[in-house]
Amino acid sequence: MQPLSRSPRYRRTSKRITALLAATSLSAAALFSVNAMASSHREAPSITETPKVDGTDFYMFRSYEPGRAGYVTFIANYQPLQAPYGGPNYFTMDPDALYEIHIDSDGDAVEDLTFQFDFDNNLVNGTGVTLDIGDKTLAIPLRYAGGVTAGDSSALGETENYSMTVVQGDRRTGTRTVTGSSYVKPLDYVGTKTLPDYEAYADQYVYDVTLPNCALPAKVFVGQRAEAFAVNLGQVFDLVNLVPLEGSITQSRENDDLVGKANITSIAIEAPIACVTGNGNGVIGAWTTASLPQGSLRDPLPTYEQTELHGGSYVQVSRLSAPLVNEVVIGLPDKDLFNAAEPSIDAALADYVTNPTFPALIDILFRDALGATSNIAPSNLPRTDLVAAFLTGVEGVNQQATVTGSEMMRLNTAIAPTPRATQSNLGVAGNDLAGFPNGRRPGDDVVDIVLRVAMGALCHDIPVNGVPTNLGYCAPEDAPVGDQPFTDGAPISAMDVQNVFPYLNTPLPGAE
Question: Are the beta carbons of 470 and 483 closer than 8 angstroms?
Fold first, then answer.
């Protein structure tokens, strides 16, 4: 990041800085205080203050769109729990933040390739849409003043653009290539009157992008999508206010608090496999982060262009790869620390994986309900099965040539994608090696998978190429309920999402 004295935002407000500091009674040293935050569906304390940089879900999978099997798709979702009617400003990205997708191709838990996204919002003509009211010309209070279509966006008074930079090596000091600086993020789905054909309008902003040292173009799209994370959110966090077993709860969309009810903002890239695997064994690790400037100073006389003054280096405030790790694995005192950390130092928090507390909570809540007479939490401590699932990858499936214990999503790019119609929403546990935890597809029911793995599913036989196989991490007697069909009752499958990039469905309209 540029030093404070060289930043464009500083130059625009340099004449006001003395008055600003005096008005707030702060010293310049306050600019460099550090904010620690976290990510993933509001699961850590500090992120509730900054939802624009809250990473919610991360997907990585061999593209299963027909004819695109030679590509890998990455989708990083941000800004949780978007009500479709949540206007009038809706869900622009933070122009002060840096959003990133990192790829480790050799297994050392350090990024070898990073896709960086930097957003910028602008008022058309510096004012947005204006109207003549008597003898005065005044800006309207909305971002638009009429219908918006694929062929005509002239009614928009505010635009949102972004740049995409590819960094080879360290994300801050590596070789940087700007692929484009004026990509358009479409307006969120206000409603069918404002946007009568949202799908056609948004599709025009899927871009072909040239990556450095890559023979084939990639695709990129950033914009609002329909939420695809199926979860019985309210009851799960009400001390799991349900009996989480198939047969005890009906699989129903009525149990789902997000799919069909909320939207999300997606950063999606589809890249040729050869351009992301580097010199490793074809298994890649990846995660998404968001970072903010280290210090900020609020302006008591804000303008559209300047509400705060920023300085210092970027500080990571959000991090996400595998789902539900910070929600149900990391202890409350360390949730913010986990999200500020890089994967290469995850060993400091490994106790939460080797000696997890979540299965013990399930035992406390459901031992009697399940008719058990003794502890139902797996007894194989340390939990080498969870270490494989979340920290090292599974040998022969998605383990990298160099094994570094770290929380990353891992994908074996040599495993062919499963066509949409034949995917198992239980992924590897459902005899579908192209699914979670070998990457993650939008149709993988990760809540059910994580529940089952946490309670010891990998201690029992799982189908590997159709053959019941024990992976050798633990024995069936170590996990007395590890073979039970745990579920939250909120289903999802590949048939519930699209079969074409960017895969997640058109967002829900704010009004019909």
Answer: no
- Is 38 within 8 Å of 318 (Cβ atoms)? yes
Q: In this structure, what is the dihedral angle of CA atoms 165, 169, 175, 177, given to the nearest 10 degrees?
A: -20
Q: Within 13 Å of residue 309, how many CA atoms lie on the same side as its CB? A: 27
pLDDT of residue 37: 31
Name every residue whose Cβ is closer than 8 Å to that of residue 32 and which is 6 or more positions away in sequence.
294, 295, 311, 312
Q: Return the closest-CA partner of residue 471 out of 486, 485, 455, 457.
A: 457
d(CA 317, CA 52): 11
CA 42-46-50 angle, to 5 degrees, is: 75
Q: Quick one: DSSP state of residue 261?
A: T
Give residues with Cβ within 8 angstroms of 196, minimum separation 6.
147, 149
Strands in 321-446 per DSSP E: 409-412
**Contact (CB, 8 A) for 281 and 400:** yes
The first and second tokens of residue 465, run together, are: 């190429």
Q: What is the pTM of this model?
A: 0.91
- Buried-state track 457-496, b at ≥16 Cβ within 10 A, e below 16: bbbbebbbeeeeeebebbeeebbbbbebebbbbbbbbbeb
- Contact at 8 Å (CB) between 44 and 339? yes
Asked if residues 436 and 390 have their Cβ atoms less than 8 Å apart, the reply is no
Which 3 state secondary structure label does DSSP give 275? helix
CA distance 116 to 118: 7
Write down the pLDDT at residue 370. 78
Exposure string of 33-44, with b = 16+ CB inside 10 Å and e = fewer, is eebebbbbbebb
CB contact at 8 A, 310 and 96: yes
Residue 223 near residue 480 (C-beta atoms within 8 A): no
Domain locations in the chain as residue ranges: 4-496
CA dist., res. 505 & res. 270, Å (int): 16
pLDDT-flagged residues of the chain (< 50): 1-39
Q: Which stretches does DSSP call E strand in 86-210?
A: 98-104, 113-123, 130-133, 136-139, 158-168, 175-184, 207-209
Beta strands 55-62 and 71-82 are: antiparallel
- Contact of 143 with 182, CB cutoff 8 Å: no
CA separation, residue 342 to residues 82, 98, 329, 348 (Å): 28, 16, 17, 11
Q: What pLDDT is stored for residue 415 in this prediction?
A: 97
| C-alpha to C-alpha distance for 39 and 61, rounded to whole angstroms | 22
> Which backbone phi and psi does 140 adopt, to 5 degrees?
-80, 165
Pairing of strands 71-82, 158-168: unpaired
**pLDDT recorded at residue 45:** 60
Give pLDDT, residue 16.
Answer: 39
Distances (CA, A) of 452 to 398, 411, 470: 19, 20, 15
